[in-house]
Amino acid sequence: MMKVALIGNQNSGKTSLFNILTGTNQKVGNWPGVTIERKEGKIKDTDITIVDLPGIYSLSPYTAEEEVSRQYILEEKPDVVINIVDATSIERSLYLTTQLLELDTKVIIALNMADMLEKKQIRIDEQKLSELLHTSIVRISALKQTGIDELIQLIRSQSILENHHQKIYAPRVEDILDYIMRHRGCNRFEAVKIFEKEERYLGYVTDSILYRIDQIEKSYQYDTEQIIANERYNFITHIKNQCVTQPKNVVTITDRLDKILLNKWLAIPIFACIMALIYYLAVGVVGSWTVDLVDGAIHSFSGWVAETLHHLGASSWIISLICDGIIKGVGAVLNFAPQLVILFLCIAILETSGYMSRIAFFLDKVFKKFGLSGKSLIPFIVGSGCSVPGIMTARTVEDEDERAITIVCTPFIPCSAKLPIIAMFAGAFFDQYSGLITVSLYFLAIVIILISSVILKKFFFKGNPSSFISELPEYKLPSIKYVCRDVSEKVIAFIKRAGTVILICSIVVWFLLSFNWKLQYGVNVEDSILASIGNVFAWVFYPMLGEWSWGATVSAIQGLVAKEQVVSSMNIIAGLAEESQDVTALFGSGVFGFFNPASAYAFCMFNLFSAPCFGAIGAMRRELGSTKRMFQAILFQTGLAWILGCLAFGVGSLILHFI
Amino acid sequence: MKHLKKGQKGHLSDLTIGQIARVTGLHNDSRAVRRRLLDMGITTGVEVKVKKIAPLGDPVDIELRGYELCIRRKDMENIDIEVIK
Fold first, then answer.
1. CA distance, residue A207 to nearest chain B CA (Å)
2. Are the C-beta atoms of A417 and A563 separated by less than 8 Å?
3. Is the distance from CB of A111 to CB of A140 less than 8 angstroms?
4. Closest CA of chain B from A231, distance in Å
5. Helix, strand, coil proportions of chain B in percent (round to 5)?
């Protein structure tokens, strides 16, 4: 069975090609580093395995996710490597190609973005390029899906050109490489690595090799690493001059857009407006006219089910389990699906348009001051959808300290599952200001992140100087197809979670609420098992609620399973506590009647900033690499959230006192 | 910041927006950072143009080899250049 690997620079369209070849829907975006782990699939209608690797610029790894690609190519030895080359920035892309051509694996070059060439009036003589590089080339467009069949045919035909191991360096360098190959019995790729004195190959540098390296470094006046890089690029420039013609000094749409979006005075206000608009739209505008609608529908559905079951002769506890437990709990969460569609849509557009890389670019200076990298912002924005992919995206941050701080701070950004909590409290207590309150919580999240990183940097990390080296991609019109697929997938995942995790939790909550420790059914909720558990821990929340509330306590704890469960649980508790089944009764019920705007805001804050759900905690453990650091992180997050919650309640109560 | 004229030597960080220069040397303390810069195409002899500067003055977006690269001023100070334009 054949194994094919897809490799190329970051943002060169590997994942798009992978999706076309396999027919699956992996995440694509327009920022460097969308793919962080390798993904495997089968080319449609064949048994050829294809692997999508994280983007790399060179086979000398610089970040954690680049290491994944390098290891795969060197250790798993695929039969064929498809090297995706972004035809619009061919010079930089071929740098990786020159390294791949030193391996013993066959290489196919897929010249991507063929559709953009015409627009940019770039002409590439593919025939000539293929001759000069001694390798097979297919021109494709992953966007327009052209050239794909030719590519598949070429892979299957096995008529791919063998690597020629062309001598591309100066004769003096080639002599030494020949010597190393003979002396150490290694291949060309390894010989170059030994010549460059790469860390992993230092053990192979013998005195006779070192002598030759010293000699050549003296005559070049710089070290072998630089000699190799220079000569690779010289070779590429030489080839490019023969095969590529492109117009000079064109002002692109990207440049014109950047004049505004990266403008000295406008950039940050525009960014703030865009982010505020997203949440205002999702929670304020759409939320206000969908929540009541969906809520009403669910309420009448619940009534209909109860009546039908009653007619069928079902006993009262079954009706209560289904209506007060399942429908109430799951429905409370499903309520927010329309708002999430808007949120996911906005994030998808941000991701695919290329604006994300700009945000990292212009906020780098601010973030650097607080011990983060501009690239940390990408995990934060991805994290506003879900913390798990957000935490994983932190791999694109090169510096280890900055990456760890980014991982710990990503869950502070309210994810989509926390949105229902915000929307519920904001809608109930802040009425027409609900959009504003929501936006305030997101900006608060950013402030907390900045403060936390200063604290973390000071006490837990050494603080090495770091750097920010990143490609700035061009703006692209988001592909409607990908955006729609991305949004629907995330919404379906949310609905699925409502049908599984939330459903099971709802049943458990209903059970614990309906029975007492003697397992008698139909007890007053105050005497239920859940209430007694909540009463044990209620003191924790007293300072931010001003009330001993077992209901709020147990609901907050359930946030560990899934954050939207907080909303689900509160709804079930309120429903069972009250005889009347009025939908607006949540905060009118005896259990939650004590909430005022101050405690609502404080409780909201605690739920947003305390330990994330188990899924995100698991991701934190994996990415931080140790259970100890994970527990430290959770403790830090929860401690901070508690202090902030108590402070917010204190300040809020003061304000309420004077209004 | 000093203003460099055509033919003058200095560091990449000395350039103002729109200026073009040729790289004459790289000397970074961190081997990893230097390697990354080499990989991204900042080698001796390459022409670079300062294209965009972040609203807060740092990092800087430079154009080279037909694409755009963002880089912090601190790292630009370690790149020697000769101004072409």
1. 22
2. yes
3. yes
4. 9
5. 20, 40, 45
pLDDT score of A36 more than 90: no
The CATH architecture of the domain made up of B9-83 is Roll (2.30)
Do residues A200 and A284 both lie within one domain? no
- Best A86, A399, A467 member to test B by mutation, with max B CBs in 10 Å, is A467
Q: Position of tokens 């061009």?
A: A474
Q: How many domains does chain A have?
A: 3
The Cα–Cα gap between A113 and A296 comes to 49
> In this structure, what DSSP letter does residue A515 have?
B
In 3D, which of A323, A374, A306 has the Cα closest to residue A576?
A: A323
What would the pLDDT profile of A336-380 be if each residue is shown by its tens digit? Answer: 888 888 888 988 898 889 898 999 998 899 888 888 888 898 899
Instruction: Give the domain extent around A222.
Output: 171-245
Q: How far is CA A312 from CA A308, A618, B39, in A?
A: 6, 45, 73
CB contacts, 8 Å: B77 with chain A: none
CATH number, domain containing residue A175 = 1.10.287.1770
The SS3 assignment for A313 reads: coil
- Within 8 A by CB and 6+ apart from A657, the residues are none
For residues A192 and A173, give the distance between their C-alpha atoms in angstroms, rounded to a whole number: 10
Q: Are residues A64 and A182 in the same domain?
A: no
A98 touches chain B (CB under 8 A): no
pLDDT in tens, A66-94: 788 888 888 888 999 999 999 988 999 99
A456 belongs to a structural domain? yes
Report the alpha-carbon distance of residue A347 to residue A379 in Å, rounded.
Answer: 12
Contact A467 B74 (CB under 8 A): yes
What integer pLDDT is reported at residue A33 of this predicted model? Answer: 62
| Domain edge (last residue) among A108, A129, A157 | A157
Q: A541: number of CA atoms within 13 Å, CB side? A: 27
* CA distance linking residue A404 with residue A459, whole number of Å: 13
- Cβ atoms within 10 Å, residue A520: 10
pTM: 0.86
Assess whether A388 and A532 both reside in one domain: yes
d(CA A595, CA B56) in angstroms, rounded, equals 43
Which residues, in sequence order, are CB contacts of A199 under 8 Å at separation 6+?
none
Tokens for A622, please give them: 């994996």
CB of B85 within 8 Å of a chain A CB? The answer is no
Domain annotation covers residue A380: yes
Task: Provide the 8-state DSSP code for A107.
Answer: E
Let me know the angle formed at the C-alpha of A15 by A399 and A198, rounded to the nearest 5 degrees.
Answer: 40
Region at B18 (left for phi over 0; alpha for psi -120 to 50; beta for the rest) = left
Alpha carbon separation from A18 to A138, A143, A148, A253 (Å, rounded): 15, 12, 11, 28
Structure tokens given for B42 = 């900042």
> What type of residue is A239?
I
Secondary structure class of A191 (helix, strand, coil): helix
CA distances from A354 to A70, A252, A474, A611 (A): 26, 14, 6, 31
Are B56 and A365 within 8 A, CB to CB? yes
Instruction: Let me know whether A370 and A330 are in one domain.
Output: yes
